[in-house]
Amino acid sequence: MSIPIKMMMAAAGRGADPSGNLYTWGEGSAGELGDGLLTDRSSPVQVGSLLKWASVSSGQDQSAGIRTDGTLWFWGRNDTG
Q1: How far lies 75's CA from each of 25, 37, 52, 56, in Å?
Q2: d(CA 25, CA 45)
């Protein structure tokens, strides 16, 4: 018996990409990946190519990020408020 695993990953700012770029991949059918599409991604894609990120935190179905300009962004399912 196999159990499906749902994944979403992010790297930004002082993490894996010191340039401040954000990359994401995994299940994106409800906008969880923040790339503006409703599709799954099996390899990393950049989120907001013109945006630089200082910090990002990810949950199972949502993420929050702070851009280098100090603005706070949220994206994801939003099915529980």
Answers
A1: 14, 12, 16, 11
A2: 7
**CB-based contacts of 23: which residues, under 8 Å, 6+ apart?**
9, 10, 11, 12, 16, 17, 44, 45, 46, 47
Do 64 and 57 meet the contact criterion of CB atoms below 8 Å apart?
yes
Average pLDDT rounded to a whole number, residues 11-34? 70
For 45-57, what is each residue's pLDDT tens digit?
888 777 788 888 8
